[in-house]
Structure formats: structure tokens, C-alpha cells
Amino acid sequence: MTSMKPFISLLSVVAALACFLSEPLHTQAQGAKKRIAYVTNGVDPFWDTAAAGVRTAEKEFQVKCDILMPPKGIVDQKRMIENLLAQGVDGIAISPIDAKNQIGLINEACLQAHVITHDSDAPGSKRLCFVGMNNYKAGRAAGKLVKEALPSGGKIMIFVGRMEQLNAQQRRQGVVDELLDRPEQDLEKMKFAPPGRIVSGGPYQILDTRTDNFDYARAKANAEDAMAANPDLNCMVGLFAYNTPKCLEAVKEAGKAGKIKLVGFDEQDAVLQGIIDGHIQGTISQQPYFYGYHSVRILNALSKGDRSVLPKSGFYEVPIVQVRKANAEAFRAELKKLQAAGK
Amino acid sequence: MPHTSPLLQVRGVFKSFPGVKALRNVSLTLGHGEVLAVIGENGAGKSTLMKILGGVQQPDEGEILLDDKPVRIGSVREAASHGIALIHQELNLSDNLDIGANLFLGREPSRFGWINQARIRSDAQTLLNEVGLRHSPSTVVSTLAIGHQQMVEIAKSLSLEARVLIMDEPTSSLSQKETDQLFQLVRKLRDRGVSIVYISHRLGEVKELADRVVVLRDGSNAGELGRSEITREGMVRLMVGRDLSQVYPRTTHSPGPTLLQVQNLRTTAHPRSRVHFAVKEREIVGIAGLVGAGRTEVLRALFGIDPCLEGTITMRGRGLENHTPADAIQAGMALAPEDRKQLGLILEMSVLENLSLASLRRDQHRGFLNRRAETDVCLQTLKQLQVKTPSVDQVVQFLSGGNQQKIVLGKWLAMKPKLILLDEPTRGIDVGAKQEIYRLMEQLASEGLAVLFVSSEMEEIIGMSDRVLVMHEGRITGELTRSNLSEEAIMRLATGEVAA
Amino acid sequence: MKKILGIFTLLMVVCLFTAINNPRFLTPYNFLNTVRWTSLFGILGIGVCFVIITGGIDLSIGSVIGLVGSALAVLLTQKHWSIPSAILAVLVLSAAIGLFHGLLITRLQLQPFVVTLCGLLLYRGLARYITDDQSLGFGADYEGLRLLVVGKVPIPFSSTISLPAPFFVTAAIALIAAIFLNKTIYGRYLQALGRNELAAKYSGINTDRMKMLAYLTCSVLAGIAGILFALDLNSIQPSGLGEFYELYAIAAAVLGGCSLRGGEGSILGVLIGTALLRVLYNAINILNIPTHMEFAIIGAVILAGVITDELVKRFAAKRRAAQAAAAS
Q1: A279, A145: one domain
Q2: Chains contacting C (3 or more CB pairs within 8 Å)
Q3: CATH number reported for the structural domain that contains residue C204 in this entry
């Protein structure tokens, strides 16, 4: 037994040496960390939640992540992507601002890195897959919330930052189709009702869709003007995260809180608070946390040569959640936890 | 056979502008190789007539004959094709471009759109030699003195090989030396057979240069003088329609105590020269010299526009150091600058607003405008200076040059200054108004003020000054009193030939 | 006055056209909303009017709004400063910005366009830096302070209509500005230096000091507007708050009779110019004109107005000249 002692001590020395040696080895491994970029379509609290998912995945999968939020639209986004390619990143997740006209840019990026889209897809491009929700389904879910708020029908206006974005178009079409009880459309061959024209059928009438180009003051003024022009307006649907809070401000100041029903998207605190207060009927959360998380997970695997992570359809669907008064408090608590984990 | 018929004839020309009949039945003839002076007070119609000849404006009635054939001069280009070139009163150069580019602006020698720079340079050099301007063709115009810019303008019209050269006040910004050079040129051109129409306020020049004088008054022909009839008195009589027995009303006063003392003054324009002089109360001191001698800079330094590099300025026993114009005004100074339109007046503002600009601070009620004081000051000044204006709300750009200059002076008289600095006080104003300015200078001196004035007009310097300081390249090269004051003495000092 | 008459007529024409096509344009609710937005944007116009009178320009207004709004949100919601000290701090910040512009323009003789263009980029970047580019909301904690913007003040002798609070803020600012420009010697100095800076200097006016004052005023008013915009929206987006608002302000000032050459400007004109812009935006929504048409429509209406104004002026000048000729 005594002969074992030197052996054990030798073993422990070797182990200690291994630990010691593994330090530089480990940093070497860190140096070889895959670099992944997560490009959003703008600046918004929505993306803060997605960023939390990115940061969680960054730790979990041992990758290096850059989160880039273009504040000035399509030109800014293009510049950022070109910079990333110049720096030589391994993978990029892009939320295209204007998919149709960015296919060239995305295909160019595909030649130099693994590229996926998230939040908003770029159909027809060579991106490897799309991580996001089905915006059309989300629109229909929002339409269901409108129906819950106005069971006997009414007049509805839609507010959005830009109509050029595919997700805005799909969401709006989902709302329209649900309210008019039309059959579900296929994402690939979708027909869009032109905005700016009154759409009606059955008890629901969609008066107009107003855009504000991400100017908060315009968003609020649009809601005010909608109330001024249409005294019988029953419901406002905000397609982008900030739209519904701005509508709520305008509705409150007009003294119509609770009278004009509001339905929103995403999970800004002002929206959740509005739901808890009973001023907002509900919101559709697309769980952006998982956008960030799964984008990084998939890109990491791809850059290590593992293509099994790609869904066959090319669409990795993150399920949506309907938030109503009943589940708002719990949803908010969970969201705060996730965001804290991301930081 | 020499030419018997005149080169150019103007017959019965009428021209009116809204509210003004500028020309009424004006006629003149211009012979081959003749220098014809056209004179008249401001507003007499000289400039309008010349603009019609130069193709800038069209007559309402009347005809123009060139070589006995009626011609229509519809544009400057047409005028040029007839061999008529007009040198404008206001400089007409692009001062951000160099001399060569200005000389050939719009007619650059080029090939397939590429400008032939080498040819511009050599042609420009020839022209500059001809006018006697010693600057490289690549000198940017804005860096030239105003007198030299004028010579570029003249060189430009020479290059057009004109048969008729119309010069509108060409010497108004030239020094004596430059004027002499110009006269040589004019004579040279005349001997070559070029006819010259020469417009000037300076009757001395006209007398020296003109073969014949046509006088306009109130838009009509007032008379004509042949070579032997050209006298100052004769011209003035025709211009104003009355005798001006005494142009310079200067009387002698006994100077009082010293008001302004300047020692060791170095200005930014001539940092290596030092200036010393003094001005006494009840004294009119003239500063003579060539353009660029540093006269204006001395006034600017005194008034606190430019910083003084060194030196002491003492006003009424109190020193001024690093002072601003506001401090100079406080000390009792006033400055009527050389460039009336750019520096002296705010052309788009009213007579009232211009007159009160300097005295607003004094008359304020805790920062608020004192409308009553403003109006009182204004009306009093208008009366004192006999300014002709339809109302106090008239915008000053519509006043005549003489009345504008009175506004510049009036602005300062309201401040009751002790020392008035005048920079070229009569530039571009007519004989009648000039005399009013002279009378005012005289009156101010007799009231106990001191006047320090810069002038390029020799007659004015000699006629008005008690004492003359002559400057050359930033230094005062001499001081002349009435006893030894003469044109020759000034020129010797101004050219640096001697130092007194 | 005549310059204002033209723009005022255009405003009335647009109002009339909108009211005829949708009478709901005239409801008190819509009217008061338009008054509120006009008041908020009008503060910017008044500020830039001072700078334009000196012959300068301020392109940094929108970014100053963004920075002030962001700083206010950070100080209140993250640093938990008291309301008075936070407001004082952001006003001092905007005053410092104005002084900074003024110093660069007068002492270093830099061009206002360049200085304030760099400011536009700099302050936007700072706003995003201090907030980590995150949107910040005031939540329900500052309802008292928000009354400054969303509050309504009843008019005496009228039980039905109460005016939005910003109207009174702007009215006070406009009154002070108008008195300053028209009744004080400094207002006269500003106009004089705007028309001919050298002549003003030769008249003993401290032109540098007056220019500094103009840039200071412009930035402080942008700061005040920044506070009000942030409170009105109850949340700020550092990258977007106030973006392009300098162009609205400059357009309103020029429509209202300010000459970009300097020396001319009227506070009442600026307010009417602002009102015209706000009414155009409002009319596009009220008349259900698609939003993507708004720039085309606003540009066309303003251009048509400016052209008509110029033609009317020329016609009047011609007629006056003809009358004068006939009289003489």
C-alpha cells in the first residue's frame, strides 16, 4: 500500500501539471472561439430581450457574439453587414429590413459566412434557415384577441412603423384574414390586401393602416388623428412593439382608456402594464429571447460543420404566446428573469 | 483719307425706369481715336447711357449709329461683337479665381473642353505687362489691392480689342501712380485709334485727359466743351447749373490741446513699421499715400477693429489698450469707413435704424429700445445734414451715394464724438454732395472736434487739411503743413523718394 | 407683416380644404391636438429663428432633443435624481452645447453649418452612449411632471374648451422672444449683424457676443423642447428622439419669413409656419391619404405656397411701380 503513495502523489502532480498546462490550452481554445454576429433591424426593447437570449447562448456554447442594432434603417444595416464580412465572422443572423431588395446582400454574405435570418425572413435568398415565428399566425392570433375584445364586431385601425417589412405585411394580413374569417393562407404564396384601403366583411371593418417610420411622436400623433377622424373607432392594433404603448398614451389623454380596445405585439413593459391595468386587451409575444438563443445555437453548430441543426423546411419556428390579463403578471415575472439571465 | 464721319452716334435716346425718367432726348457723338469725357452729378444719367451703349439695357426711344449705320445692341455679347467694351463702376471680377482665369472667363482657350492653362498664362502675362501690373497671372484676385483689381478689369477689356472702350469711374479706387499709368494707357490706346468714353467725378482728371466733354444734367444734355474750353469752373457750372465759387470751404483755425496721441503703433498689415502722430482739437489732418500704404489700417487699429501689435494710443489723456470699437466710441471716436456699402451701412435697413445703430446703447431703457430718443436723434441728424430721403423708414440702399454717406456720418454725429475718422469720405459721390461733406468737416472742426481723414484725392487732401501725414509702406514718411503743402511734395513722400 | 400674410393664407387654405373634405378636422379634440404639436415644434422654430436671423444655421437641434431627452430619462429613472435637479441639469447641458457652438463659430471662425452638423452626429452618439442605446420609459412615476405637457388648462369664461399646457409654455416663450427681437436694442443688434456683420461691428456692436447669444438661445429652447417631447411620449428612444426635427424647425422658420441670408425673422411667422407643417401632417391622416404620400404632399404644398407668394409679391411690386410711374 505504501508503494501506492508515490504513485498517487505522482498522479496528483501530473493532474496539477495537466491543470496548469490546460490553462494555456484552454485559452487557445478560447482564441478559436467561433465568432457570431446578431444583426437586428433597428433599436427596440424587443431586441434587448433577444439580446438576452444571445448572451445566454454565448455562455452556453462558448462562442463570441456581437449584437448590432442599426439605428438608421437599411443603409446602416448594409454597412454593418459589410463590415462584419470584412472582419471575417463565422456566422451572421440577420433580420432584414427590406427582404426583397436585400437578397443580393444576403447572398453575398452567404459566400463568406454561415447566414441565417431571424425575426423577418428573406425568401428566395441563399440563407440557410429562418429562425422566427410565423408572423402570419401571430397576426391571426392578434386577430383572435380583437375578436375577444369586440365579440359583436367594430371598426379597427392598424398602426405600424414601416409597411415595407415582410413581417409587418404578414402580421397585418393575419389580422385581416382572421377578422374576416378567411381561410388560412400559405406563407409562400400569400396574397396581401393593399393597405390604405378599407377592408370589410362581416362585423369587422379595418379602416386604415398608418405608418410612422419609427418616429414615436408620429406614432402618437397618428393614433390621435385616427380618433379625431373616426369618432366610432373601436380598436387599435399596433403591429410593432412601440406602437401600442403610443396608442395607449393617445387613448388615455383622449379619455378613452378601456373604451377603445388595444391589441399589441411583443412585450414592452408599458404593454404588459396596460394589460394588467385593463387598458389593453392583450399582446402577442413572439418570445424574442428564443430568437437570440436559437440563432446562436444554430450558427455555432453550422460553423463547426454540423448541418443537422437545420430544419428541413428551412424554417425554425419559435412558438408565440398570447398574453392576456390572466397570464400577464406571470409572463412579466418570467421575462424579467430571462433578461437578468442574459446580462 | 482720315475718317470724316464719327465712329459712334447716339441720337435722341429716352429711357425710363419705374418712377424715374433716367434719360430724356440725350445725344452724343464719338469720333475715331477720341477721348470723350461724360460728366454729370450722380443721377444725371451717365451710367444709364453707358449701360445702353454696353448692351446691358435697351433704350425706350432713339437710335445708335455705328459708322453711320443704325445698330441694335441687345446684349453685352452684341456690344462686344460691335467692338464696344464696358468697364463697370463696380468691380466685376470673380475674386476667388486667379487673374488669368478672370481675364479669359467665359472665353477660355480650350480644346475639347480642356482649358489651355499655358496659353492663358502667357496671354495674361502679355496683358498684365501692357497695363503695367506686376503680378503673376496665377495670383488670386481677392489677394490683390482694390486698385490692382481695377487694373485687372482694365486689362480684361483691353484683351477684347475694343474699338470703343467705355470706362465708368475707372480711377475711383486707384492711387495717383496707378492713375498716371492708366492715363498713359488711355493715351496709348487713343493713338492706336481706339475711342474712349470716360466717365469720372474727378474734374482734374477730365481736364488732363479729355479731348471733349459732354455734360449731362437730370437726364438731358446740359452742354458740351471742346478741348480748349475745358475748365473746372466751366464743367461745374454745366453740371450743377450754377457757380460753385469755392469748392473747399477750409478756413484756418487755431488748434487746441492734443486730443489723440499715437506712439509706436504697429498694425497687422505692416508689422515691421511703427507709426507716431498726434491730432489736436479743432484740427483737420489728412493722411495721404498710395493704395496699400497702410492708411486704412491705421484708422482700423485706432478704432479697435484690428488688434494693435504694439504701441500706445492715448485719447484725451486716457490710454486705450486691446480696445474694441465700443471702447473707441466710449473714448469719443467715430469711424466712417472707406467701403460705405460693406462696412458703413446696413443697406437693407431703414434710414432710422442705420442712424440710431451706434447710439442705441446710450439711449436704451434697461435694454429696451427708446423709440422717442431714436426718432428725435434721427430727425435732428437728417435736418442737420440735409439728407434727402422720402421718409425715415426709407431703406438706405435706395438713397444716392451722397445721402448714404451723410447717413454714415450722421450715425456718428449723434454720438457727439471728439474725433472723427474718415476713410475716403467722398468716394463715388457727386460734386454737390462732396461740397456738403467738406462743409460739414469744416463745421465740425470749428465746433472743436478733430477730423482725421484718409483720401486718395490729392485735391481734397490739399484743399481740406491743416496738416497732412504722408504714408509709404506702413510708415509715416513725412508731415506737411499748409505752408509747404503741394501735390509734388506729397507724391515725393508717398512714393518713398524722400523722407522729410 | 406681408410675408406672414402669405403663409397665413396658405394655412387657412389647407385648413379649409381639409375641413370641407372631412368636417371632423374641426372637432375640438383634433384642434387641440394640433395646437399641442404646434406648440412643441414651435419652440424649436423660435430657437432656430434666432440663429437664422444672424445668418447662421443650427442642424443639431434634433440631436440636442435626443440627448436632453435621454439624459433626463437616465437621471430620473436610473440615477433617481429629484425632478428639479434633473431638469436644471439638462437645461445647463443644453446651454453648454449652445455656448460651445457659439465659441467655435465666433472665436475659431468655423462655419455654423459644419459646427452644428458635427453636433448633430456628436449629440446623437452621446445620447445612445449614455443610455446604452436602450429605450427608456418614465412609466407611471412622473405623472405630475407630465402635466406640463399632457395637462389641460381651462380657458376662463369657457366651460368646454381647455387648452393643452404646452400652448402656454410656447406662448410665453414666443412673447419673450418677440419682445426681445422687436423691442430691445439686442434684437436690433441681431438683425443688424445678420444683414451686415461688418457694418454692425463698425458701429460698435459686439457681434461675437450677440451670435453666441443666438446659438445659446437656440440650444436652450431645443433643450426645453427635448424635455417636453420626452415627457409627452413618456418614453425615449435615444437613436430616434428628435431625429430630423431641425429640418421641421428650419422649414417652419423659413416659411414664416426668416431669410436664410440673415437679418429677417418674425416669431409670429415661425409659429404660423410650424402650424402649417403640423396641419399638413394632420390633414394627411384625417383625410386618410396613405402615409407614404406624406412627404410628396407636404413638399408640393409648401413649394406651391412659396411660388404663389413670390408671384404675388412680384405682381404687387410691378403694380406699385406702375402706379408710381403714373403718379410722377
Answers
A1: yes
A2: A, B
A3: 1.10.3470
